[in-house]
Amino acid sequence: MAGGLGTRLRPLTDNIPKSLIPVGGRPVILYLIDSFSTVSRDYILTVSYKYEKIVELFSGKLSKKGNFLFSVEKDPLGTAGGLKKTEKFLEETFFVGNADTVFREDMKELLKFHVKNKNIITIGLTKVDNPSEFGVVKLKDGKIVQFQEKPKENPISNLANAGIYIMEPEIFDYIEKGKVSDIAKNLIPSLQGDNKRIGGYEIKGTWIDIGRPRDLIRANIEMSKKYTGKSPSFSGNIYLGRKVKIGRNAIIRNSSIYDNVSISDNVSIENSVIYDNSQIGEGSRIRNSILSFNSILGEGVYVDDSVIGGGLLLRKGGKIEGSILSSGEENK
């Protein structure tokens, strides 16, 4: 499922679909593709927003990863509505996943669990620190017996729906064709009402939702490598792209720096992501922030807890805290 608008990551997603946002040096969707590749090489990508870029990517060199079919939604149909559109291609047990999560799991074990328990749907579950931000479930003997959507208080558990599913074709009988509908909000309640068995499997591998800026930063850090070089100015998990220029006395900690980024002298970058073709002026400091593609920072700019849109110029001495700046805005 790769049709989301990624509104919470704007302005980063103004020019790129959410599923293609780089994490640890690669489009986030590839983590899901790699996990699913252990059980299949046939994929259907449900796409909508800026779908041409997704089609282009998987019609090129990535076509070697498997057989790709694209289901284009002119108007988004929701997760279940989009799934319904692919019905004629799915005649046996199939997997479904959100393409905007970093996901690494042994899908063979998940499939064994699904088949053994004769579930109509098996939902991948993951433990979360804050259940109020997710749909959580209560399990009994591998069966989901209760759902709770983003509980503000008294959560029934800390096991959240990870947006990873195994389904049987029978589920299509519960989705109305051409109607906007959601797996969690519409399909699953319909199956419950008909007493269909819905299983829950706790994911043991990696799962990170990149839906918010702080999550995207965390995903980049976790999927980057521990720095083992000799420079005392680098520490933590670091990703460095191609043709990165780094000036003297620059300090980089737990950050991802993508292709063709130019970093001047005495710059400090911590817990941040700097995307392709950005320029950072001398003495600037960046913390807990994301700089989108083609961003330009002047000398002595301070950025903290912010998302800077691509093509944006921040002038000398600018200070940005807790902000989201889109292209066309300019800090003076």
Key features of this structure:
332 residues; alpha/beta; Spore Coat Polysaccharide Biosynthesis Protein SpsA, Chain A; UDP N-Acetylglucosamine Acyltransferase, domain 1; 2 domains; 5-stranded parallel beta sheet; 17% helix; disordered C terminus
Quickly describe the structure:
With 332 residues, the chain is α/β, with parallel strands linked by helices. Helix content is 17%, strand content 33%. Strands 13, 14, 16, 18, 19, 21, 22, 24, 25, 27 and 28 form an 11-stranded mixed beta sheet that branches. It has a 5-stranded parallel beta sheet with strand order 15-17-20-23-26, with no helix packed on it. The chain has a 4-stranded mixed beta sheet with strand order 5-10-7-11.
Task: Kindly describe this structure.
With 332 residues, the chain is of the alpha/beta class. The radius of gyration is 21 Å and the shape is elongated. The protein has two domains: 7-213, Spore Coat Polysaccharide Biosynthesis Protein SpsA, Chain A; 224-325, UDP N-Acetylglucosamine Acyltransferase, domain 1, CATH 2.160.10.10. The two termini are 41 Å apart. It contains six helices and 28 strands.
Secondary-structure map with pairings?
Layout: E1 22-23, E2 26-27, H1 29-36, E3 42-47, H2 51-59, E4 67-72, H3 78-84, E5 94-97, E6 101-104, H4 107-117, E7 121-127, E8 135-140, E9 143-149, E10 159-167, H5 183-193, E11 198-202, E12 206-209, H6 213-222, E13 225-226, E14 234-240, E15 245-246, E16 251-257, E17 262-263, E18 268-270, E19 273-274, E20 279-280, E21 285-287, E22 290-291, E23 296-297, E24 302-304, E25 307-308, E26 313-314, E27 319-321, E28 324-325
Parallel strand pairs: 3-4, 7-11, 14-16, 15-17, 16-18, 16-19, 17-20, 18-21, 19-22, 20-23, 21-24, 22-25, 23-26, 24-27, 25-28
Antiparallel strand pairs: 1-2, 5-10, 6-12, 7-10, 8-9, 13-14
Helix pairs in contact: 3-5
